[in-house]
Amino acid sequence: MSEKGQTPAVEVLDAPTSEHGEGPVWDPTHGVLHWVDLTQGVVHHLRGDDSWTADHFDTEITALAPHVHGGLVAATSDGFAYLSEGRLHPLSNVLADRPDLRMNDGGCDRAGRFLAGSMAYDATPGAGTLHQLDLDGEVTTLAENVTIPNGLDWSPDGSLLYFTDSGAQVVTAYDYDHGTGAMTGPRTFLDFETVTGEPDGLTVDSEGNVWVAVWDGWQVRCYDPEGQLLLEIAVPVQRPTSVAFGGPELSDLYITTSRFGLSAAAVAAQPAAGRLLRCRSTAVGKAPDPCRVELTSIPTEEGR
User: Fold this and answer.
1) Domain of 112?
2) Annotated catalytic residue: which of 200, 205, 252, 289?
């Protein structure tokens, strides 16, 4: 990665402006970056030549994971769904009877389970839960009393899960068992109490460094596995939301951003708010693990 103090340049990509860009994930099989405009129900797809397409839905889409048989598994306002060829197929409507809640950020473990957190629309403290969509389609609870569940990723060897609760201003590390999907031994990895802004989405690179988007902080911060700050990347927007490595060498750092909740004057002062950003020559990421959740009776790209 770049040496401490050497800040890589940030590029504003010629891709659609989102109200609330979130959830970037790289699909190495197809060479595509996927991300969402959460509040608008839009899923964007950026190809290697920087061309893009989009799918539009009548529900919020909050997180994505490429599926091993093609398509994407998504977290939605109701729970979990499978997205293929512009259509959503429900997998588990775990929040169907809770209109006060919606899903938020998520990611896949090494075995292919999909984890995503839920939260209250009004961010009621402790109203959220970290859910796990298991390989057989069953949903279990991994953590409760979460306020704003965000960044979620694993160490390169898979033994540690990092999980952000923006409402609590902390990133927690857990011991993680990929055989059973159990997480244990929570301890505070990062405490943002003295940092301007809130920890939001995160990703872990191939060396185990943790990259965190800082909501209301105008920056992305990189920490080593011991929690020591290595790098700060200033971005031209107040609200970066999440980060993901992509590109042929996994050396491009993509940054989603938001204009949600900003005043008209604030948006005018930061025209890149809501745009997709990219840094090159920063570090090398690790390829995301594909989702392997059962898709019984759902058509997949592989099966067509």
Assistant:
1) 10-280
2) 200
